[in-house]
Fold each of these.
Amino acid sequence: MNRIALFLVTIVTLVALSLAQGTPQAAAPATTPAPRRQMGMDRQKMAEMHKQHMDAMKADLDKMQASLEQMKANVAKITNADEKARWQANVDLWTSMIGHMDQMMKNMDRMGMGPGMMGPGMHHGGMGAPPPPPDEKKPQ
């Protein structure tokens, strides 16, 4: 059981580190606006950073998916019903988590979360505030 806990802690730590691996952005000086040429270079740099982050996330997801497939194969070999149920719950949790992360990546790509689309609070390709709710007519 200690190995299982160690494995889970390791995976969670790796996911947290992979999400936090970017460098914090320095605050821009408020004295004068950047010339157009400089802004174009900043956008290009941000686009490159975005691509690097997306590539890193994809690599992390691929590694997580491979580990999940190993876990699924191991669960199939467990004969003790209680132990199998515990491991199956673990597999179900990671399946959900990996699916959610994959969907977030697809949404980020689809929405074009590039440099022109990034606003305040949207650092390193992450989602800032939740999207506004759809326009719904509420009964009065």
Amino acid sequence: MASLTVNYILYNTSGRQGAAHPSVLPSITKTLSADDDYLVEILPTLEFEGKELSFAFLAACGTDYGSLLSFQASAQNIPVGDHDIQVIVVYLPQLSTDHTIFINAFNLDQADFSKSDFIQVLTDSTKNAGVNQTGALSSESDEKVQAFETIDGVPFSIWRSFPGKTTSGNRETAIGKSQNGYLFAFYGGND
């Protein structure tokens, strides 16, 4: 028997370290037998507190296949084994800020955002502390950032930008002038 918990959250842009991510749908907890599968429903968009949110990604740890990551806005099959499973479904708010990229790290082995420092701004190292604390980087000029090789003892996997479909396994990534959106560094998982 394994316990499966699914949390649907809104990504909080008000700071990385200590930021709480509010639930946008009720959590689901099920007790399932090994070799079962559980289908997690994904809505491409939903409304929360009068604002439209867009699906970003689903991550799961503890599945029969290890860690899972999906960017597909469709129902996702979660294979159940002997371990408890944590599933997180992340939604993003529409941005009202200009020339800002919100950057964060996600640990796939824990299915949670990391609060640890993980990034350096290669174009201006004086921005490192601020970006690692707040998760916001101005894009009033071109920027280049690099993810640490490991975070919380887990190796870097991929970058993913939102909106858009840009995914990169290179630890360095460029942010264009006037770009708005989100940039997440994923660590761990089964690639």
Amino acid sequence: MEHDKGRTPRGNIARASPSWRRPALALILLLAETASAYAQMGGGRGGRQRDQQQAPPKSQAPTPLPALPEIWPRLEAGALICKSRDDLVRYQTQIANSASAAPTAGQPSECRTISKQTGIQILDRDGPSRTQITTTDEAKETGWTNSYLPATPPPSVAKNAGAGK
């Protein structure tokens, strides 16, 4: 058995491996994992993208909902409506004379605030801070408001075909 000197016995193959094999094997495994992750993310030569382009679309994009026309003219939530012009003038005078300019402080019972956006029709104007209106909801309430209501609608409303006075 002279010729077997220097060789490891068959059962000890792991011990006979050169020292460079373990780092090389670790490097190969690392590269394989990196390549696999890259392929899953869609990298490479665009194989996934070509597959996606060739496949027919499964569903079409949902059609956008038609734009609802904005109410114009309108009062925003929190706007004030008074029963008469005199009630509105009294309210405005009280606010101007009081130390605190809070609109709800000492609000006359003939005036109330709007809780939600309400469509209106403009009947008359007495300067920029007094406008006679009637609501277009079921109540059809007529009164005066101190809300600024420009004569022309904002651009977002002017674009809608259904906008009108």
Amino acid sequence: MAEKKEGKTASALSAHPQPPQQQPEKHPQPPSKNVKYAFAALVIIIIAGAAYFYLLQPPAEKEIPLAEFRGSLNLTQRAAVVQDLRGMPPGDAQARSALQNCGVQLSYGLSTLGKNVTNYALEGESCTAVAGSEIRTKTVAECLSDISSEGRLMFAISYNSTANKTSLFSGRALFSGDAGFLSDCAITTIIR
């Protein structure tokens, strides 16, 4: 009988096998300190870069009202009339003449107000500067730098076949349009 008991026990054990041993759960390891520092540095670099580009972007230039521009004109003794011939259609003598004549009228009008006027003609990469009887040839960048460094209020006249417009900004007036618009030279009314 003892044998039977042992047999029953063995068969009872085989009928209910023991569950396999479970592996302990693997918990994800927290990132190492080096990974944390690298991530923090990356975030700081991204934020600093975004701030750098945001703060260094020049604000969009805003147009100013005519009264404010005239106030600036009254306060300045130096003016620059810039005839920008770079966008002129080749062979369009009428548009070229209209632009140049408008520049002469504007220069004369500023002179009658007692302003010290220097005239500039931009064509291609060169600039011709005329101050009194002195004529100098420079690069466009040099002329624009001179205007800025001398603190001249700039009046720029240029050809534009698609839009006739006068825009006033702090320190400069832009007058551009087609041959008919340039012939009217309405920018001269600003200085009256």
